[in-house]
Amino acid sequence: MENQSVDVIGCIAGSILTPNFIQSRPEKINPFAPKPQLPEEVVKECFSKMGKTPSFISGGSNKIACFLMNRMFSIKRAVNLMGDTTRKMYRIGD
């Protein structure tokens, strides 16, 4: 029996312009928020990282946002900020 290996990678992606995402009609509430990525961009970056790292954050603006959130806020504050942003995007609790 031939030895075959499997490569697994964790892709931490932000918003992706899938049909369901588009249909959900999120509001753009912050001009500095990372822009949604095309699915092809995420897949291309994922394949380019295979075999090189166990996980990565997809998209330059997502990397910057993650870096800043991890450096500027406590975990609790960052989670609350993301939750508040999501509620505003989808008009939850209006």
Account of the 3D structure:
By secondary structure, the protein is mainly α. It has one domain (10-89). 47% of the residues lie in helices and 6% in strands. The protein is built from 4 helices and 2 strands; from the N terminus they run βααβαα. It has a two-stranded parallel sheet with strand order 1-2.
Number of DSSP strand runs: 2
Overall geometry comes to globular
Query: How many structurally independent domains?
Result: 1
Give the strand order, joined by hyphens, for the main sheet.
1-2
Rg (C-alpha, Å): 16 Å
Strand content: 5-15%
Compute the separation of the termini in Å: 61 Å
Going by helix content, strand content and strand pairing, the class is mainly alpha
**Order of SSEs:** EHHEHH
Largest sheet: 2 strands, parallel
Mean pLDDT: 92
What is the count of helical runs?
4
